[in-house]
C-alpha cells in the first residue's frame, strides 16, 4: 500500500511537473505568438515604408533628371520657348511637393532630412531661376548669358541623392536586421519550451516539433539569404498559422523589394536609352557646330585674304596707272630720242667703216713683224748651238789640265825621291841631285801654269754659260713676241669681222629705228586706253575691298553666334556626362540585389560617356580657335592620360584585345590626340591658318573614332559584357 501510494505520489508529482512545464510552455508560446504578431505588424509597416520611399525616391530623380527641371531649362535656353519654362516650373513645384512628402515619412532620420534640405535648396534655386525668367524679358539676352544664369552647383545635391540612396539601403538593412533579431529571439523562445516539453512529452516533439522546426529553418534560411542581397527565393509556407503569416508577409516584402529593384532597373534602362538618344543628339549638335565653326573660320580667312588681295591689287593698280602715265611721257621722249638715235647710228656706221680700213693696214704690218720674229728666233737657235759646242771644248781642255796637274804632282814626287837617293849616294849622287832639283822646279812651274790656265778656262765657261742663258732668254722673248703678234693678228681679224658685222647691224638698226618710230605712236594710243582701263579696275577693286570687309564683319558675328551654340552644346555634353556617371553609380548600387531574371539579364557597356568626353575636347579646341577659350599645352595629355585612353588600356584591352575594330579605334584615338596637340601648338605659335586646317582633319578623324565606337558596341562581346 505504501509502495502504491509512493507510485501514485510520484505519478502525481510527475503529472503536476509535466502540467507545470506544459503550462509554462503554453505561456511562453502565447508570449511568442504575441511577439510574432507584433513582428508581423512591424514587417508590414517596414514593407509599406520601403515601398513608399522607393516610389518617392524614383519620382524625385525623374523630376530632376532627363525630361526634368534641368533638361527643360536647357531646352528653354536653346530654343527660347516659354513652354519649356512652364514645364520646368511644374517640375520644380512637383519636386518640392515630393521632398515635403519625403520629410513627413515615418522613421526619417536627421541626416536624411539634412540631405533632403540640400536637394530642396538646389530645387529652390531652380525655382528662383524659373520665376526670374518668367518675370524678365529674356529676348535681349544671348544664349551664353542665359546659360550662365542657369548654372547651379549640383555637387551637394548629387552627393545628397547618393547619400539618400545609402540611407535607403541602410534603412532596408536595419529593417532586415530588426526582423532577423526578432526571428532569432522568436526561434530561441520557441525552441526553449519545445526542448523542455520534449523532456516531458516526447511524442509531442515527434508530432509537432519536426514540422515546426522545418518551417522555422526555412524562415531562417530565407532571412540569411537576404543579407547578401539575394531576393530570388521565397519561403512559400502553405499554412494559416502565425509562421505561415510571417512567411507570407516575408514573401510579400521580398516581392516588393524585387518590384522596387526591377522598377529601378527599368528606370535605369529607360534612362540609359534616353541618355543614348541625348548623346546622339548632342553628338549631332557638336559635330554640326564644329563643322560649321570650321567652315566659318575658313570663310573668315578667305574674306580676310580677299580683302588683303583687293587692297594689294588696288595699290598695284594705282602703281600701274602711275607707271602708265610715266610710260606715256616716256614714249613722247622716246620718239625724239629715236630721231636723235638714228642720226647717231649713221655717224657710228661711218666710224665703223673707218675703223675697218685702219684695222686692215695694221694687220699687214703685224704680219711683217711676225716674219721678222720667226727669222730672229731661228738665228738665236743657231747661236745656242755654237755656244754649246764651245762649252764642250772648254770642258775637254779642263780635263787635259787636270791630267797635266796630276803629271806635275807625280814628277814632284819623283824629284823628291831622287834627291833622297842622291843624298844617300854622297858625292856620287851630287849630279843626280842637281837634276832632281831642276825636275822639281819644272813640276812646280807646270803646276802653277796649269792652275792659271784652269782658272781662266773656268771664267770662260762662266761667260759662256751667261751668254747661253742670255741667248735662251732672247729666244723665249722672241717666242713670246711671236705669240703676242699672232694674238694681235687674231684680234685684228676679229675686229675686222666685228666691224663688218657692226656695219651690217647699223644698217639693220637704222631700219628698226624707223619701225620703232611707227610703233611708238601706236604704243602711245594703247597706253591711253590702258590708263582708262586701269582706273576702272582700281575703282572695282576698292568696291570689292569694301564688300569683303563687310562680309568679314558679318562672318565674325556669325562665328561668335556659332561659338555660343558650341559652348551651349559643350555644357549639355557636360550634363550628359554627369547624368551617365550618375546612372552608372545607381546601377552599381542596384546590382547589389540578386533578382529572379539576373541569369538572363545582361548589361551592355555604356559608350555614351566616352563619346561625350571625346566630343568635349573637340568642342574645347573649337572654342579655342574661335577665341572663346584658352588651352595650355600642359592640358593636352597623351592618348593614355584621358578618360577614353584609360578605358582603352584597361577594360577595353581586356574585352576586345583580339578585335580588329578595337585596333582601329586605338589608332584613331592616338591620331585624335596628335591632331589636338598640333592644333593647340599652332595656336600658341600664332599659326592660325594651319590650326584651322588641322581642325578640319580633326573633325574627320573624330567622326571616324565615333563610328568605330558604334561598330565596337555592335560586336557580340559588347552585348554580352
TrEMBL record:
<dbReference type="GO" id="GO:0004888">
    <property type="term" value="F:transmembrane signaling receptor activity"/>
</dbReference>
<feature type="transmembrane region" description="Helical">
    <location>
        <begin position="182"/>
        <end position="208"/>
    </location>
</feature>
<keyword id="KW-0807">Transducer</keyword>
<keyword id="KW-0472">Membrane</keyword>
<dbReference type="InterPro" id="IPR004090">
    <property type="entry name" value="Chemotax_Me-accpt_rcpt"/>
</dbReference>
<protein>
    <recommendedName>
        <fullName>Methyl-accepting transducer domain-containing protein</fullName>
    </recommendedName>
</protein>
<dbReference type="InterPro" id="IPR025991">
    <property type="entry name" value="Chemoreceptor_zinc-bind_dom"/>
</dbReference>
<dbReference type="GO" id="GO:0006935">
    <property type="term" value="P:chemotaxis"/>
</dbReference>
<dbReference type="GO" id="GO:0016020">
    <property type="term" value="C:membrane"/>
</dbReference>
<keyword id="KW-0812">Transmembrane</keyword>
<feature type="domain" description="HAMP">
    <location>
        <begin position="210"/>
        <end position="262"/>
    </location>
</feature>
<feature type="transmembrane region" description="Helical">
    <location>
        <begin position="12"/>
        <end position="34"/>
    </location>
</feature>
<keyword id="KW-1133">Transmembrane helix</keyword>
<dbReference type="InterPro" id="IPR003660">
    <property type="entry name" value="HAMP_dom"/>
</dbReference>
<feature type="domain" description="Methyl-accepting transducer">
    <location>
        <begin position="309"/>
        <end position="545"/>
    </location>
</feature>
<dbReference type="Pfam" id="PF13682">
    <property type="entry name" value="CZB"/>
</dbReference>
<dbReference type="Pfam" id="PF00015">
    <property type="entry name" value="MCPsignal"/>
</dbReference>
<dbReference type="GO" id="GO:0007165">
    <property type="term" value="P:signal transduction"/>
</dbReference>
<dbReference type="InterPro" id="IPR004089">
    <property type="entry name" value="MCPsignal_dom"/>
</dbReference>
<comment type="similarity">
    <text>Belongs to the methyl-accepting chemotaxis (MCP) protein family.</text>
</comment>
Amino acid at each position: 500500500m505504501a509502495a502504491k501510494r509512493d507510485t501514485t505520489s510520484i505519478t502525481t508529482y510527475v503529472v503536476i511537473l509535466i502540467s507545470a512545464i506544459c503550462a509554462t510552455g503554453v505561456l511562453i508560446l502565447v508570449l511568442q505568438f504575441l511577439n510574432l504578431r507584433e513582428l508581423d505588424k512591424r514587417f508590414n509597416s517596414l514593407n509599406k515604408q520601403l515601398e513608399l520611399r522607393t516610389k518617392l525616391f524614383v519620382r524625385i530623380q525623374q523630376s530632376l533628371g532627363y525630361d526634368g527641371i534641368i533638361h527643360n531649362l536647357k531646352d528653354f535656353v536653346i530654343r527660347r520657348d516659354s513652354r519649356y519654362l512652364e514645364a520646368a516650373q511644374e517640375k520644380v513645384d512637383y519636386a518640392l511637393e515630393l521632398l515635403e512628402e519625403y520629410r513627413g515619412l515615418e522613421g526619417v532620420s536627421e541626416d536624411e532630412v539634412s540631405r533632403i534640405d540640400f536637394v530642396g535648396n538646389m530645387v529652390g534655386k531652380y525655382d528662383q531661376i524659373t520665376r526670374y525668367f518668367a518675370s524678365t524679358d529674356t529676348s535681349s539676352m544671348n544664349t551664353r548669358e542665359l546659360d550662365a544664369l542657369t548654372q547651379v552647383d549640383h555637387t551637394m545635391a548629387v552627393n545628397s541623392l547618393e547619400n539618400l540612396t545609402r540611407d535607403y539601403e541602410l534603412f532596408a538593412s536595419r529593417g532586415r536586421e530588426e526582423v532577423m533579431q526578432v526571428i532569432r529571439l522568436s526561434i530561441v523562445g520557441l525552441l526553449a519550451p519545445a526542448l523542455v516539453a520534449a523532456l516531458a512529452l516526447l511524442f509531442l516533439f515527434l508530432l509537432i516539433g519536426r514540422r515546426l522546426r522545418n518551417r522555422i529553418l526555412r524562415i531562417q534560411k530565407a532571412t540569411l539569404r537576404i543579407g547578401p542581397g539575394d531576393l530570388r527565393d521565397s519561403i512559400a509556407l502553405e499554412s494559416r498559422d502565425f509562421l505561415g503569416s510571417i512567411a507570407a508577409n516575408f514573401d510579400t516584402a521580398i516581392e516588393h523589394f524585387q518590384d522596387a529593384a526591377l522598377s529601378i532597373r527599368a528606370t535605369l534602362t529607360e534612362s540609359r536609352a534616353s541618355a543614348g538618344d541625348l548623346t546622339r543628339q548632342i553628338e549631332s549638335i557638336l559635330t554640326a557646330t564644329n563643322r560649321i565653326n570650321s567652315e566659318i573660320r575658313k570663310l573668315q580667312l578667305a574674306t580676310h585674304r580677299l580683302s588683303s588681295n583687293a587692297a594689294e591689287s588696288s595699290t598695284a593698280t594705282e602703281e600701274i596707272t602711275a607707271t602708265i602715265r610715266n610710260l606715256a611721257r616716256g614714249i613722247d621722249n622716246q620718239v625724239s630720242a629715236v630721231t636723235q638715235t638714228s642720226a647717231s647710228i649713221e655717224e657710228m656706221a661711218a666710224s665703223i667703216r673707218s675703223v675697218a680700213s685702219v684695222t686692215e693696214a695694221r694687220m699687214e704690218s703685224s704680219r711683217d713683224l711676225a716674219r721678222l720674229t720667226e727669222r730672229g728666233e731661228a738665228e738665236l737657235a743657231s747661236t745656242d748651238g755654237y755656244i754649246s759646242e764651245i762649252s764642250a771644248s772648254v770642258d775637254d781642255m779642263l780635263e787635259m789640265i787636270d791630267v797635266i796637274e796630276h803629271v806635275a804632282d807625280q814628277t814632284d814626287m819623283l824629284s823628291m825621291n831622287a834627291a833622297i837617293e842622291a843624298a844617300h849616294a854622297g858625292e856620287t849622287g851630287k849630279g843626280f841631285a842637281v837634276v832632281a832639283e831642276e825636275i822639281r822646279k819644272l813640276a812646280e812651274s807646270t803646276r802653277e801654269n796649269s792652275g792659271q790656265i784652269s782658272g781662266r778656262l773656268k771664267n770662260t765657261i762662266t761667260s759662256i754659260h751667261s751668254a747661253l742663258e742670255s741667248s735662251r732668254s732672247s729666244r723665249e722673248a722672241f717666242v713670246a713676241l711671236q705669240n703676242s703678234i699672232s694674238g694681235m693678228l687674231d684680234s685684228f681679224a676679229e675686229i675686222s669681222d666685228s666691224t663688218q658685222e657692226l656695219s651690217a647691224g647699223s644698217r639693220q638698226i637704222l631700219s628698226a629705228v624707223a619701225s620703232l618710230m611707227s610703233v611708238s605712236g601706236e604704243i602711245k594710243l594703247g597706253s591711253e586706253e590702258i590708263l582708262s582701263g586701269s582706273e576702272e579696275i582700281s575703282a572695282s577693286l576698292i568696291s570689292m575691298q569694301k564688300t569683303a570687309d563687310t562680309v568679314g564683319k558679318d562672318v565674325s558675328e556669325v562665328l561668335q553666334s556659332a561659338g555660343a551654340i558650341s559652348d551651349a552644346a559643350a555644357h549639355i555634353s557636360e550634363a550628359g556626362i554627369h547624368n551617365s556617371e550618375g546612372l552608372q553609380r545607381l546601377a552599381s548600387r542596384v546590382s547589389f540585389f540578386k533578382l529572379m531574371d539576373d541569369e538572363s539579364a545582361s548589361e551592355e557597356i555604356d559608350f555614351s560617356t566616352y563619346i561625350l568626353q571625346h566630343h568635349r575636347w573637340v568642342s574645347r579646341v573649337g572654342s579655342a580657335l574661335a577665341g572663346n577659350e584658352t588651352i595650355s599645352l600642359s592640358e593636352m595629355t597623351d592618348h593614355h592620360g584621358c578618360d577614353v585612353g584609360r578605358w582603352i588600356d584597361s577594360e577595353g584591352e581586356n574585352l576586345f584585345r583580339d578585335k580588329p575594330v578595337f585596333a582601329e579605334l586605338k589608332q584613331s584615338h592616338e591620331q585624335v590626340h596628335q591632331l589636338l596637340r598640333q592644333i593647340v601648338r599652332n595656336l600658341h605659335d600664332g599659326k592660325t591658318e594651319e590650326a584651322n586646317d588641322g581642325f578640319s582633319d580633326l573633325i574627320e578623324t573624330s567622326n571616324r573614332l565615333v563610328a568605330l565606337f558604334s561598330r565596337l558596341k555592335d560586336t557580340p562581346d559588347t552585348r554580352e559584357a
